[in-house]
Amino acid sequence: SVMRYKGKVGETLQIAKELNVDAIMSGRLVQIGDELSISVQLTDARTDKLIWAEQYDRKMSDLLATQREIAVTIADKLQLRLSGEAARGITKNYTNSNEAYQLYLKGRHQWNKRTAESLKLAVGFYDQAIEKDPSFALAYSGLAESYVLFSNYDVGLAKDSMPQAKAAALRALALDDSLAEAYTALGFYRFLYEFDLAGGERDLRRAIELNPNYATARQWLGQILVHSKRFEEGNAEIRLALEADPLSPIVRFNAASNLYLARRYDDALREFQNTIAIYPDFPHMPTGMCWATYAKGELEQAIPLCRKSLELVPEAYNKGYLALVLGRSGQLDEARKLLDELEEESSRRAVPGIAFALAHLGLGQKENALSMLEKEVDSRGYAATSLAVLPELDELRSEPRFTAMLNKMNLPE
């Protein structure tokens, strides 16, 4: 939420307004060898007056203890009356290894980027953190939250990565059963891989109970609800996710894509455009714009957006989607060429069935599209659980084979 404000400490009132907070903490950390100098100040955003300021001179080995000391001091200065559980959250010690903690933060940073390469980097950092501290539960939950996304970003097959996600989440909970992040990963795994909607919802609601401000739990719960056609409930959860992390590009992307799945295309486009204004370099926004523009029937306007989407994120899904849009706009030769490219790619690596299905639909090949969707469901592909709501598949909804797929996944028709 806050890294975009780095270096803008003089704009306290504007920052507070954008984040909807009453106070802003700013600080500076200087490291020289093993010596740390940390200056911190807390400003009342309503009056722009200084509440508290302090200078900490510490050793690098004292970083975690210093972090907890600062957090407790700020809570006291703000005169927060915290419950016992919340107070424990401030002072909780997840690891005694500064190296493990720094590696965990690097993993988290990469995970938030949501690209194939960044997810692989995230797993590497989490593995290194676990090597430094094998009892570091947060690092295991980070692994779980990364592996559960692998199939969505063409990093690996669900049959390989999803069991790893489950194992890492269960290991995290064995070490610390109060981790919202671990329940979040486990809930999303149950929904995507086991087609267990009730179990996935239960775990995600447990995560929210443990940490109501964990945006990813609300984001993924919102996704489950929307994919189950509980649009109002799902969009309410994503709004709460945005309140918890108002500047997260991936939460904002999901907020817009949920509107698109609810057939609110103009609202979705506005949300995608608002996110582009905040994060112009986030690579997935043209993808969302492509979807919503195509769903509105504006094929000529959708084509350049879909081309940009494939250029920025060269995943099989985006190639299949471009083939769909080109085929529907009458550009059959290029659509067939893209389908040929997908088939060539499939000889070298696994290509999700949904990518082929979209391309076949663009060419008017409904039976082939249905066969590829069955492949997506059987392989537990990431897009499988969205079949009940994807607008692009509406022409298939009367087909018995399509209905059978939804029933297999416990999704509404």
Describe the structure.
α5 runs antiparallel to α6 and α18 runs antiparallel to α19. The protein is mainly α and about 425 residues long. The protein is globular. The relative contact order is 0.06. β1 and β2 form a beta hairpin. It is built from 20 helices and three strands. The mean pLDDT is about 90.
Task: Summarize this structure as a short list of keywords or feature phrases.
20 helices, three-stranded antiparallel β-sheet, single chain, mainly alpha, 413 residues, globular
Short summary of the structure?
By secondary structure, the chain is mainly alpha-helical. 63% of the residues lie in helices and 8% in strands.
CA radius of gyration is 23 Å
Within the largest sheet, what's the order of strands?
1-2-3
Q: Provide the β-strand percentage band.
A: 5-15%
Distance between the termini: 38 Å
Topology (elements, then pairings):
Blueprint: H1 12-19, E1 23-32, E2 35-44, E3 49-59, H2 63-77, H3 84-91, H4 98-113, H5 116-132, H6 137-147, H7 158-175, H8 180-194, H9 197-210, H10 215-227, H11 231-244, H12 249-261, H13 265-278, H14 285-295, H15 299-312, H16 316-328, H17 332-346, H18 353-362, H19 366-378, H20 400-408
Antiparallel strand pairs: 1-2, 2-3
